[in-house]
Structures are given as C-alpha cells and as structure tokens.
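Re: the request from the purification team.
They wanted to know what the chain is likely to look like in 3D before they choose a buffer screen. I agreed to run a prediction and write the result into the notebook, where they can find it.
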Amino acid sequence: MTLRYPTAGDIEQVLAFRNLPEVNRFMIRTSVEPEQLRRELQDVAASERDYSCVAVRGDTVVAIGFLELHDAVGQPGKPLGTEAVIGYLVHPAYWGQRIGSDLVPALLEVAFSVLGLRRVTATCSAPNVASARLLAGAGMRLEARRLAEEWHAELGWIDGLHYAMLAEEWHQRNTKVDARCTDVTGR
C-alpha cells in the first residue's frame, strides 16, 4: 500500500465510495457534496496543516487517511502546530483486508517521525467496534468515553470514544510500517 496526495483520478475514486451508506454509518458528516470534496482534496498538497492522503494498491484507492495539524490548548506562548487529529475511511470492498490496520500506523509514523509532532488524537463512535479495535491495536490509548455525545440517526444518542498517543509512546513501541509516504511528507 502506498500513501500519496490525492490526484484528480484518485479524487474521483474517493467520490465513488465516500457517500455510500455503509461508509457513512458512523460519520458525523454523512454525505459530502462532490464539488466540496474535490476542492478539499485538491487543496491538500498546498496546505501547511492538512497532510491527508489516499491509500493506493496498484492503481486503486482503497482508503483515505486524514492527518490535520492543530494547536494544543494552553496559555500564551504555547508551541503551535504540535498536535494532529487523524481519521480514515476505507472502501467497503476492502474491509477485512487490514487496510485500516496498515493505514493508522502509517499516519502515526508520518505524524511522529516525519512531522515531529508531540501528540495525535482520534475519535470514533462507541458502537463502531471495528474502528475502536483498530485505534487500540495501533497503540492509541483510550482517554475518554463521553456519554451520549453524538446524535446517530438510527441509534439515537451514542457514546464517543477519544484516543490519543504521545510521541514518546510511539517511539517506545519502535513500530515499523510498510508504507511509502514520500509524496505525503515531501513538503
């Protein structure tokens, strides 16, 4: 699997699965306008804060990974751009093929070893057991279970799970990932 900035052809492949009901079941943004998504993904390569990428096998986009820098909470003088939030969407045709299990560590590798960040967070809905298992399996620590924090159209109010990892935790794991991130980190 290779990670890279999305090309025009990649964006069209992402659009083919982004609004599928099974993909959006646990997404807050349950659909996106195609033009808006095109603009967002085309802007990634020039962004100083967005390191989102597509995960490609051969010529096929199998997932999209999100990695966006943000600032920590704190008093004046705090360091800027030291944290990121990650996320992912896997094409349903590739569910169960370890795409997410490879993608999340690759995003963490970019965040900690390439960008030198100090903290990365991710969230998922508590009923999304596969996503919770994936984040925990990548070594992210469950920091909070927020009760009834999200409205779900089918399930009503559901709990949200908040995961995090510090750079020292990542480096202590000494994890090696099998992903080439040259396009994503070549800024």
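For the purification team: The two ends are 21 Å apart (CA to CA).
Please add any questions underneath this entry.
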